[in-house]
Write a structure and sequence with these properties.
Length: 176
Amino acid sequence: MVYCAAFGCNNKAEKGSGISFFTFPKDVNLRKQWAHYCRRKEFIPTSGHRLCSVHFSSNCFMHDPQLLDQIGLQETFKKRLKPNSVPDIPLLTEDEVSSDVINRAKVRGAYSKRQKAEIIEEALSRCEDTAMPESSSIVFNEPVEAVTHQTVSTNNKKIQVELRPPQRTRAHQTNF
């Protein structure tokens, strides 16, 4: 699984996410700039480290991804960086990352289920209160004809189904 090497970035390679991952450049100076951008202590990028496309502005790409998306050609062109491109979208600070982690506390299944049930119950109680007053009544003055007997025809069909899966049998054929 490929993850982004930038500090505070949790992007990972998933199909359909629209995020591309780029290997660190081989040029030493450019590689140092990319590593400095990652803001990780004593970080030395290896061949397995990648940066995601989120950290590059649209002018860093050979083809503008936003323009291609508007035209409808996003799928046909692979995102490629221009030579000497450096990530230029600022990363989150350490305080912003730590507050983001705190705010993103894991929600347990039972808690979220109970919370959804409470919201639905509250919405239904509001709807019942405003739906129709209980003291209202409807009076019809015109006589209404009622049908007392009606015949309904039914058709019964039977289907036979074999529930066991078909099995192959092996037999030996020999000549005497």
